[in-house]
Structures are given as C-alpha cells and as structure tokens.
Write a structure and sequence with these properties.
The protein has two domains: 10-93, Phosphorylase Kinase, domain 1, CATH 3.30.200.20; 100-142. Helices cover 29% and strands 30% of the residues. It has helices at 54-69, 100-106, 111-130, and strands at residues 10-11, 16-25, 28-35, 39-48, 78-84, 87-93. Strand 5 and strand 6 (87-93) form a beta hairpin. It holds the Pfam family Pkinase.
Amino acid sequence: MATAPGTSLQMSSSDLIKRKPLDYGGFGEVYLCYHVTLGHVALKTVYTGPLRSEDSKRSLLEEGNIMASLNHERVVKLLGVIMEDSDCSLVMELLPRGNLLVVLKKVNVPMSVKGRIILEILDGMVYLTERSIVHKDIKPENILVDNDF
C-alpha cells in the first residue's frame, strides 16, 4: 500500500490504539497498534524529544516519501509518519512473525530454506540499490518475516 504522489504521509497518534510492545533497540520501540482505517500496523518510534526545527520535520517527511514510494514484496511498506511534539514515529505494515533472528532461534531451518531466505534478502537489496538507496543496518534483527516463511 504505497502512498500516492501528493498524498500526505502525516498521520495523527489519535488514530492509533497501542496494543502491545513488539521490539526495542537503539532506534526506539516498535508497537503493535490498531489504526482506525488501516487495521493492525506496526508503530516504530524513531525519535523522542522536542522537534528541533521545521527542517527536521521536512527532512523526515522527505525520507518518508522516498520510503512510501517503494513497492516491492521484500521491502516493508511505510504507511505514514507521526510528528507531534515529542513523538516522531513511522507507521508501517505489520509483519506478525517478527524478525529473522527470533524465527531462527525458534525453528530448525533446513539449508535449502536458508538459501531461499538469502535470495529473498538479496532480491530486496537489489531493488533498493537500483533506486540508489543504501540500507545501512542489515542484520537478522532488521529483517522481518512474513507468513510465507
């Protein structure tokens, strides 16, 4: 569900109901949320504290527009951005199986499936590279797993 050109990515936190925390790390926290029109989504908090300037807002929205323009089955979809006082968050599609590290710890994955996982990761990376986008933090914790795993 990519955002159409010219459509605002800005969302309001009042449109979301936080259900439970899903993950945390150096970036902040990720929550399972319910959005009034989109249903279940992931809310990734990317910055807490007062917004520094209009340039900061503009920069986050520009980055959000780039992310929202991406449309590939191996790239998580950005649905919106929340920028309110001390809250800067990304509203993203929910991939309920979690990250690859958690899945690999729970399941004994055959070598053939590991090969498929690598190819699917490369497929997404090639898509990004063709658009001059560099993912600077590839690791199992940052690779989300869909229900087809």
